[in-house]
């Protein structure tokens, strides 16, 4: 039989676990399934109310029917598919191996504290990815080089603004403006300048929130899904505003 303290500890862990998953870019039904799986490992029923900014959790002991409630804010983590995969596997491990709460907490802390990919490595890979998009849409080698350098400049600025916790809509507007302005140097050369400018901001497209929003709506989590889609739409508008500033500055060259 669980004590009130142990039930509270289980509730706090599941609340933190589910909030970390939501913050790291997991769709809602997966968070609910994983959390309920951990609840099964401790013989408790888990009820989750997932919103865009916070989670309301209730766990009920199957033996005593004692309930425990937790409310936790969803933190803003970088999207990490590695974290998502390892934390999902951890829920299965908790169920299959009947891990104690101490063992489960230790493994959880080890996963979330693992070293992240170096920002410089991410910066270079994003540059190559955008240059590849430029080639895919018909850009030539000169445009690819310009897009690579423009992307690195814009993405580096985005990283620095995020470190300083500047509003992410402003971050997207400024990053899109700087990247597209750098890409507008393609107008000087005999190259595919329109493609260079258009693809220079593709690294900002919020693909994961858009996909998760659609999945949430389809699976019945309409409130969370529409919140994610709304935020993604506002980010897309921010990208368009930043790109529009550049177009207003170089419109005569384009004509």
Automatic annotation (TrEMBL):
Membrane topology recorded in Swiss-Prot or TrEMBL: Multi-pass membrane protein
Keywords in alphabetical order: Cell membrane, Membrane, Transmembrane, Transmembrane helix
Any one of the GO CC terms: plasma membrane
GO molecular function: transmembrane transporter activity
Protein name per UniProt: Membrane protein
UniProt-listed Pfam families: ThrE
Protein localization: Cell membrane
Domain Threonine/serine exporter-like N-terminal: 13-247
Main location: membrane
Keyword Membrane: yes
Superkingdom: Bacteria
Protein family membership: Belongs to the ThrE exporter (TC 2.A.79) family.
Matches recorded under InterPro entries: ThrE-like_N (IPR010619), ThrE_Dicarb/AminoAcid_Exp (IPR050539)
Single GO biological process annotation from the record: succinate transport
PANTHER family documented for this protein: SUCCINATE TRANSPORTER SUBUNIT YJJP-RELATED (PTHR34390:SF2), UPF0442 PROTEIN YJJB-RELATED (PTHR34390)
Residue stretches spanning the membrane: 137-157, 169-189, 195-217, 229-250
């Amino acid at each position: 039989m669980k004590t009130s303290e142990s039930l509270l500890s289980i509730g706090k862990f599941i609340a933190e676990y589910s909030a970390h998953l939501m913050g790291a870019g997991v769709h809602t039904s997966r968070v609910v399934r994983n959390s309920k799986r951990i609840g099964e490992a401790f013989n408790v029923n888990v009820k989750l109310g997932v919103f865009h900014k916070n989670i309301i959790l209730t766990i009920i002991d199957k033996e005593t029917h004692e309930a425990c409630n937790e409310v936790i804010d969803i933190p803003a983590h970088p999207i990490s598919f590695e974290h998502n995969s390892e934390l999902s596997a951890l829920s299965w491990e908790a169920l299959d191996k009947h891990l104690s709460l101490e063992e489960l907490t230790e493994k959880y802390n080890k996963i979330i504290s693992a070293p992240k990919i170096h920002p410089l490595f991410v910066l270079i890979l994003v540059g190559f990815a955008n240059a590849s998009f430029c080639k895919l849409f018909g850009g030539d080698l000169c445009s690819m080089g310009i897009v690579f350098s423009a992307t690195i400049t814009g993405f580096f600025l985005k990283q620095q603004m995020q470190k300083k916790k500047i509003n992410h809509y402003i971050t997207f507007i400024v990053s899109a403006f700087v990247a597209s302005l750098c890409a507008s140097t393609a107008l000087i050369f005999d190259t595919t300048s329109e493609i260079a400018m258009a693809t220079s901001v593709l690294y900002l497209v919020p693909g994961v929130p858009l996909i998760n929003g659609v999945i949430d709506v389809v699976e019945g989590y309409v409130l969370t899904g529409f919140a994610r889609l709304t935020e993604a739409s506002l980010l897309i508008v921010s990208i368009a505003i930043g790109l529009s500033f550049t177009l207003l500055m170089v419109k005569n060259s384009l004509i």
